[in-house]
Amino acid sequence: MIEVSAFKWVPPFARGLVRDLRVRWALEEAGLPYRSKPIDFVEQASDAYRALQPFAQVPSYREGDLTLFESGAIVLHVARRSPALMPEDEAGRERATAWLFAALNSIEPAIQNLAEIDLFHAEEDWAKARRPGVEAFVRQRLTQLSERLNGHDYLDGRFTAGDLMMTTVLRNLRHTDLMAEHDNLSAYQARCEARPAFQRALDAQFADFTGDPPG
After folding, report:
1. Strand 34-39 to strand 2-7: parallel, antiparallel, or no bridges (unpaired)?
2. Strand order in the sheet with 34-39
């Protein structure tokens, strides 16, 4: 059976954001059974785990003799096996793949920079000086994404792995009001998160948070 690593504990602000959610959601959409393997911080740093995930991050993915790391690579692997996540025509599959990479390369870095400032460095002088520029760039990216949606329900006609990845990236703005500046983006995120597969994945992630914070 497919095995996906997950954390036993993360701080409350990170719950629902850890990247194993992306993989769980893809597997739920594809109808592929899996089990999670919750790990603590000792196991995360172990040589055995780093053999699966060289950077000691979550998630790792194991399926028989195949092991993968990086959530984008794993979601793409799952999506290629499922018409629920990839169109049947070659051009549609390539466009869905492009949107998956756009979420990771064009949108996520900007959002992640803002989240790191707000959640970890908000009171530091350098962060206060840097934040306006970082927020302005996030706003620019959101405007571009909003313009692309332009009255459509999804990024390329129907729900694909690109929408799955984009939605998980946009969730990292939940500590801000930036999404509310674009009604169509807020509706897009809500539409994707209303999918039953997402709800099952989110519930499963929360169910694994049974550990204690590092002492």
Report:
1. parallel
2. 34-39, 2-7, 60-63, 66-69
Report how far residue 6's alpha carbon sits from residue 208's, in angstroms, rounded to the nearest whole number. 8
Residue 82, SS3? coil
Q: What is the mean pLDDT of the chain?
A: 97
- Find out whether 171 and 14 touch, Cβ atoms under 8 Å: no
Torsion, Cα of 190, 114, 14, 201 (10° steps):
30
Asked if the peptide bond before residue 38 counts as cis, ω within 30 degrees of 0, the response is no
Alpha-carbon distance of 107 to 122, in angstroms, equals 21
Average pLDDT (13-31) is 97
The answer to whether 85 and 101 have CB atoms below 8 angstroms apart is no
pLDDT digits (tens, 9 = 90+) for 177-198: 999 999 999 999 999 999 999 9
What is the spatial distance between Cα 70 and Cα 202, in angstroms, rounded to a whole number? 19
Q: What is the C-alpha R_g of the chain?
A: 17
Give the pair of three-digit tokens for residue 75: 């979601």
User: Per the structure block, which two tokens stand in for 200?
Assistant: 């099952």
Binned at pLDDT 50, 70 and 90, residue 215 comes out as low
Per-residue H/E/C for 39-80: ECHHHHCCHHHHHHCCCCCCCEEEECCEEEECHHHHHHHHHC
Single out the residue of 72, 85, 90 nearest to residue 31, CA to CA. Answer: 85
Q: What pLDDT, in 10s, does the model give residues 113-135?
A: 999 999 999 999 999 999 999 99
